[in-house]
Task: inverse folding
C-alpha cells in the first residue's frame, strides 16, 4: 500500500510569487490535513479536508488556501509569498480524524522563499 | 499557556537509559497521538491512545484521562532513538501539537 505522497519535495520561490503543493493520501483515506512547520513556531495546523469539504481551518491568512478533489488528493496554495512562509509543509491522511484514527504523514514539501 | 504541553524540551541520555517524555493537555480530545520526527522531516505515528497503555517493542505509551496526562517511555534506549518526539491531541478534526522533545541518545 503506497504511503502519503507529497510533491514537490523541495522548491525555491521568490517573494510575491505563488506556490501549489500536492498531496496524495493513502488509498481509501478520505481525510487530508495540512501543517506548517517552522523552527520558531513548531507545527501549526493549516486546514483539514474530508470528502472535498474543508471542515476546519487554522489561524492563517487568506493567502493560504486549499482544496480536495473527488479522488481525495489535495492541493494547498500560497499566494503572494513572503519570506516567513519558508517552512516544511506536511500533509497527513487518515480514514477520518477526530475519532482516534492513526494518521500517516508524507515526507513534506520544503519551501524556501527568497 | 499552550493547550498541549510537553516536557522536557530537550533530553540527552546515555545508551541503555530509561527515557520518559511527558505530555499534558488542557483541551478535550478524542485521542492522544505520539509521533516521531527524524532530522529529514518525515513524521511517523508511534501510538494513538484514548485510554490505558500501549506497548510496541521498547516503546510504551500511557494515558491518564482524569489527569489529562500522557507519557512516552523508551526502555534500553539506543542512539537510533534520537529524534524529536511529539505528542498531539486529536480534537475537532485537527491535531493540537505539543512543542516536541528533542531526544539525543549518546553511545
Result:
Amino acid at each position: 500500500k503506497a504511503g502519503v505522497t507529497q510533491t514537490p519535495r523541495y522548491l525555491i520561490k521568490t517573494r510575491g510569487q505563488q506556490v501549489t503543493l500536492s498531496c496524495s493520501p493513502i488509498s481509501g483515506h478520505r481525510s487530508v490535513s495540512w501543517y506548517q512547520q517552522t523552527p520558531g513556531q513548531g507545527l501549526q495546523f493549516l486546514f483539514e479536508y474530508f470528502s472535498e469539504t474543508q471542515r476546519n481551518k487554522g489561524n492563517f491568512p487568506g493567502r493560504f488556501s486549499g482544496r480536495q478533489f473527488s479522488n481525495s488528493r489535495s492541493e494547498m496554495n500560497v499566494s503572494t509569498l513572503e519570506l516567513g512562509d519558508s517552512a516544511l509543509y506536511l500533509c497527513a491522511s487518515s480514514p477520518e480524524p477526530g475519532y482516534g484514527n492513526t494518521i500517516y504523514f508524507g515526507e513534506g514539501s520544503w519551501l524556501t522563499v527568497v | 499557556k499552550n493547550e498541549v504541553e510537553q516536557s522536557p524540551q530537550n533530553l540527552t541520555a546515555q545508551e541503555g537509559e530509561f527515557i520518559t517524555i511527558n505530555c499534558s493537555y488542557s483541551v478535550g480530545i478524542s485521542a492522544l497521538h505520539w509521533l516521531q520526527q527524524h532530522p529529514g522531516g518525515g513524521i511517523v505515528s508511534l501510538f494513538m491512545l484514548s485510554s490505558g497503555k500501549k506497548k510496541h517493542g521498547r516503546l510504551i505509551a500511557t494515558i491518564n484521562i482524569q489527569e489529562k496526562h500522557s507519557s512516552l517511555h523508551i526502555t534500553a534506549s539506543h542512539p537510533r532513538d534520537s529524534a524529536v518526539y511529539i505528542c498531539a491531541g486529536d480534537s475537532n478534526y485537527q491535531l493540537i501539537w505539543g512543542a516536541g522533545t528533542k531526544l539525543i541518545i549518546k553511545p
Chain B has a mean pLDDT of 92. Chain B touches chain A at residues 30-31, 33, 35, 40-45, 48, 50, 86, 88, 90-97, 99-100 (CB under 8 Å). DSSP finds no helices and eleven strands in chain B. Residues 14 and 106 of chain B are 5 Å apart (CA to CA).
